[in-house]
Amino acid sequence: MKQINKCRALSLAILTVIMPDCESSDEILGITIVPMLTSEITSSEKHSLYGLTDKELKAIQFAQLNWSNLTADMAKGQGENLSTIADFLSIPDTKKAAFYAAAKNKFTQFIPASDTTAEQLVVKLKTESAKL
């Protein structure tokens, strides 16, 4: 049950981050339940949910939507999708080469199993980038 609530909260946080300009739930999903659900997370909570920034939450969404291309780029240590993740994680230009090399060299550690989630991957990449 706790895992379901964590995933639900993260999903709601992503919605509130990527849809800030929508004035009604109809603009978001065409249903009226969204304001009720998103009201469970305050604006300060959505920015620090699980210690992730807005950009990092967007990185998770990006990773979900571009999983195949991102993992292929990581295996090569280069590519547009890997560069985009680096930008979401605010990797300075001076450290991007090291980040790309780490993504390639530690690929099997970042994605140890086929059921690795985008959230797990982004958290691992964030942790690795802090070491650079």
Structural class: mainly alpha
Helix and strand pattern: HHHHHHHHHH
**Count of structural domains:** 2
- Beta-strand portion reads under 5%
Low-confidence stretches: 23-48
State the end-to-end distance.
Answer: 36 Å
Q: What is the global morphology?
A: globular
What is the helix tally? 10
Quaternary state reads single chain
Global mean pLDDT: 77
Concise summary:
72% of the residues lie in helices and 0% in strands. The chain has 132 residues and is mainly α.
Q: How would you describe this structure to a colleague?
A:
By secondary structure, the protein is mostly helical. It has two domains: 2-51, no CATH class; 54-131, no CATH class. The protein has helices at residues 2-18, 25-28, 33-38, 43-48, 54-65, 67-76, 80-88, 93-105, 107-110, 118-131. It is globular. The termini are far apart. Residues 23-48 have low confidence and may be disordered.
Task: Please write out the topology.
Blueprint: H1 2-18, H2 25-28, H3 33-38, H4 43-48, H5 54-65, H6 67-76, H7 80-88, H8 93-105, H9 107-110, H10 118-131
Helix pairs in contact: 1-5, 5-10, 6-7, 6-8
Which key terms come to mind for this protein?
single chain, 132 residues, mainly alpha, 2 domains, 10 helices
